[in-house]
Amino acid sequence: MTIATSGLHHVTAIAGDPQRNADFYLRTLGLRMVKTTVNFDDPGTYHLYYGDEAGRPGTLMTFFPFHGAPPGKHGNGQATATAFSVPEHSLGWWQRHLHEAGVHTERARSRESEEVLTFRDPDGLVLSLVAHPQPDPRRPWDNGVVPAEHAVRGLHSVTLSVDSAEATVEMLAGMGLSLLAEEGNRLRFAAARGEPGSLVDVLVRPGAERGLVASGTVHHVAWRAPDESTQAAWRSELAENGVSVTSILDRQYFRSVYFREPGGTLLEIATDEPGFTADEPLLELGRALKLPPWLEPNREQIEAMLPRLELPSENNPRGAVS
């Protein structure tokens, strides 16, 4: 393919209780709720978006929280870990903070030139904080919960677990990612200049059990396209190369196409435009349930199906009215 992504757009996972999910990502990890909406394909379920102040591509972690969803199973054929970027020398603070929140962490360890702290969210989703000596220029969401000098800058990387690497590597190369490093059975690929937010690790585990996507697992990984024309050209190339790819879908805040990489993980190409201020101002992001125009006539029924969700005042920029 002739089109190359600039990096990760977002990662979407399955959760259980939406309030528990919001409390963890807003208060424990210190992210901002940048959009409270619904799963457009299943509007009886929330779709919650967390990120930096504006929900910029590359900072986004999103969830479909299904009440009573059974636990998933981590394994081959899925993204088995999601990592966030934090400043160098921040992991000691995070280890104490997570311990105080009742979150068990694995002792920080070195991987290449990075320090990594691994833990799980309340539904069992595997997460990591990665501190790298190279500064991450992305500005954090500063809400007073996590000090800005330690706060999450955005996504760092995802890990895809596969039976064999060859076909997955070929597709990643076709998306413009290049091999950056190899350590045992872990291959690291990078888009653009290899900065945090543009990385994917391929973990090769021949014969390992297949994963099951349900609560506590990643549903899909989205890669960036700058605009709709680039996305359309990319979709055409995928189809011409024999990849089964969806039509372009309107997700209100971006446009999407979906396909699977050969190892089994569901991938998405999402546009950077139009962004989360398309239907509410920056100061009010995430505070009200937003519906796309085609679901707005059913607002009353949709709201009746959704459980109540309370957002902490910290989700508002300082000085904004609660």
TrEMBL record:
PROSITE patterns: VOC
Keywords carried by this UniProt record: Dioxygenase, Oxidoreductase
GO MF entry, a single one: dioxygenase activity
Top-level taxon in the UniProt lineage: Bacteria
InterPro entries per record: Extradiol_RC_dioxygenase (IPR052537), Glyas_Bleomycin-R_OHBP_Dase (IPR029068), Glyas_Fos-R_dOase_dom (IPR004360), VOC_core (IPR037523)
Signal sequence region: none
Residue span(s) of domain VOC: 7-132, 154-272
The protein, known as: Ring-cleaving dioxygenase
Source organism of the structure: Actinopolyspora mortivallis
Upper taxonomic lineage: Bacteria, Bacillati, Actinomycetota, Actinomycetes, Actinopolysporales
